[in-house]
Amino acid sequence: MNPAKRKGLLNEWRSRDLLIAAGYKVTRAGGSLGAWDLIGISATEVVLVQVKTRAWPGSFEMTTMRRFPAPRCCRKIIHRWRRYARQPDVKEV
Questions:
Q1: Burial, 79: exposed, middle or buried (Cβ in 10 Å; 0-12, 13-18, 19+)?
Q2: What is the pLDDT of residues 8-28, one digit of tens each?
Q3: Domain 3-92 maps to which CATH number in 2.40.30.10, 3.40.720.10, 3.40.1350.10, 1.10.540.10?
């Protein structure tokens, strides 16, 4: 695995662990190259998460995420992991 993909996968695992600690059941969908890397489900809501390393998504990707059809109980968020950060920067789409 090349270093960039490895770093992205490690950050997906870090985001997954944060969601699990917050009480979500998490499915990783990153390998599918879809709009979302992680899907977290709790008793009251669904969270769709796009995980990024260093940079926020570009305008095309943001538009794709905004237009993604989701129920009202669903939140769409981005986790951006900066170098050496212990927690991601979080932005709601």
A1: buried
A2: 899 999 999 999 999 999 999
A3: 3.40.1350.10
